[in-house]
Amino acid sequence: MAATSNILIAGNGTELIRYEWDTLINEAFDLLFEHPDGVTLATLVDRLEVPEHIARKTINMLREHLADDHNTNIIAVPNGRERRYQLVAEAGLETSGWLGFNQKYVETRLQTVKQVYACLSRGAKTEEERDQARRILKAVNRLIEDVADMQKA
């Protein structure tokens, strides 16, 4: 896994804490693969010894690192009535259950992005801003159409 040298210095009251992302990402990666059934965010917080917002950021950065690996995904799987989620590292097409569960969420998020960029294209102050918003809006519309086509298939 590629390491990053990004460092975040976060204020925690009067105390400043320094987080080295490459270390956190590697530890999260190891933890997820040591536990194939997944881990909760609370477990990740305890293992990394960081606040919850740093653990969430670590998972997001790990997902970014794995984006080029078309076989591995970090997904959140519902875990009972408490609405807690297990973070699970999955390979290949095993994530199809995740997609079925999150289909409506994906559709809703795409519609929200569409509405935001429609507003941005109307309210842009410069022609360049308007063009950029319209290009993104066009791409989002195509994505919405593709998702709808996949549902029909």
Total strands = 5
CATH architecture of the largest domain: Orthogonal Bundle
Distance between the termini: 36 Å
**What percentage of the residues does DSSP assign to strands (E)?**
15-25%
Low-confidence stretches: 1-5
What's the alpha carbon Rg, rounded to whole Å? 19 Å
| Biggest sheet architecture | 3 strands, antiparallel
Dominant shape: globular
CATH class of the largest domain: Mainly Alpha
Order of helices and strands: EEHEHHEEHH
- What class, by secondary structure content? alpha+beta
DSSP summary: helix tally: 5
Describe this structure in words.
- Residues 1-5 have low confidence and may be disordered.
- With 153 residues, the protein is an alpha+beta fold.
- A 3-stranded antiparallel beta sheet has the order 3-5-4. The chain has a two-stranded antiparallel ribbon with strand order 1-2.
- The chain is built from 5 helices and 5 strands; from the N terminus they run ββαβααββαα.
- The chain has 2 domains: 7-69, Orthogonal Bundle (Arc Repressor Mutant, subunit A), CATH 1.10.10; 97-152.
- It is globular.
- α2 packs across α3 (52-66) and α4 (96-123) runs antiparallel to α5 (127-152).
